[in-house]
Write a structure and sequence with these properties.
By secondary structure, this protein is an alpha+beta fold. The protein has two domains: about 110 residues, Immunoglobulins (Immunoglobulin-like, Sandwich), CATH 2.60.40; about 90 residues, Cytochrome Bc1 Complex, Chain D, domain 2, CATH 1.10.760.10. It contains six helices and nine strands, in the order ααβββββββββαααα. Helix 5 packs across helix 6. The structure holds heme C. The site of heme C has 23 residues, from helix 3, helix 4 and helix 5.
């Protein structure tokens, strides 16, 4: 941890030397942040990245006063489970009351709960939890397979690489993170519907069978991925929660 701080110190020194215009944290730290009442998430939660990798989007949190107005210049700190790196780990909110940090998750696959905090007028820490997901090798494979074979029906959004077919389907499939629908389905039933198609679970034949295309290991990888990104979380024995 100390090594990280030294490293971050060096990095920020480097940025300052390089003429970066980022405001040093000390400016705001000295001002009493009056009116700090709540921290809200602006964006960057619920992302999934490879374990040890950086999240694509930064995490942005906003400090509000008791009227719900943004508080500029409030000092925000953020911490997470072992191995999580923040750039920067602490700093003042900008003119729109927001603090932005880039996040790299630790090497362990699992869910990472990050805690952002700021002190209110009487020195009490106001906290906000943000959850992120670190994908292990198997889940990364599952994500690739999902993009290749499943997303065109299961994801309503089109991307430059693939057009969503969702709107054309008479029976609507669910996004793989829809835990309320997918969590109650057992691993064995997930295996059956992916292997043999919708009719295996008395569902629509619009869900095709993948048993000829994918190996058992690949279907397992898909199931691991589906379980890992589920929202609300899939809580099964053996689900790994990264410890603070
Ligand atoms: C051609 C469109 C299409 C593709 C491609 C497709 N599915 Fe489906 N899938 C469906 C439809 C439609 C349903 C809903 C069936 C029902 O509820 O009767 C479904 C249902 C499911 C379900 C049950 C949960 C739910 O969403 O209702 C799972 C699990 C599932 N699919 C997994 C997969 C996986 C894994 C892949 C890729 C390997 C895949 N599907 C590819 C159309 C598709």
């Amino acid at each position: 941890m100390r090594d990280l701080r030294i490293l971050t110190g060096f990095l920020s020194l480097g940025l300052v030397l390089a003429g970066c215009t980022r405001t040093p944290a000390s400016n705001a730290a000295s001002k009493p942040a009056r009116g700090v009442s709540a921290l809200v998430e602006v964006s960057g939660g619920k992302q999934a990245a490879a374990a040890g990798g950086m999240l694509l989007q930064p995490v942005i949190v906003q400090v509000n006063d008791d009227q719900g107005s943004a508080v500029p210049g409030a000092l925000v700190s953020i911490r997470g489970p072992r191995g999580t790196i923040f750039d920067p780990p602490t700093g003042p909110t900008d003119s729109s009351g927001q603090f932005t940090t880039n996040v790299s998750l630790g090497e362990m696959a699992g869910r990472y709960q990050l805690t952002a905090s700021a002190l209110n007028a009487v020195g009490k820490a106001i906290e906000l939890k943000v959850e992120e997901i670190a994908l292990g090798y198997e889940e990364i494979l599952g994500r690739e397979l999902s993009e290749k074979y499943c997303a065109r029906c299961h994801d309503q959004e089109s991307t430059p690489e693939r057009l969503s077919n969702y709107d054309n389907l008479a029976v609507k499939p669910h996004a793989f993170n829809e835990g309320d629908t997918l969590n109650p389905i057992s691993d064995a039933d997930l295996m059956a519907i992916i292997d043999h198609g919708g009719p295996a679970l008395n569902r629509s034949p619009l869900m095709p069978p993948y048993g000829y295309t994918l190996s058992k290991a690949e279907i397992h990888a898909l199931i691991s991925y589906i379980r890992m990104i589920s929202d609300p979380p899939y809580r099964a024995p053996g689900t790994f929660y990264a410890q603070p």
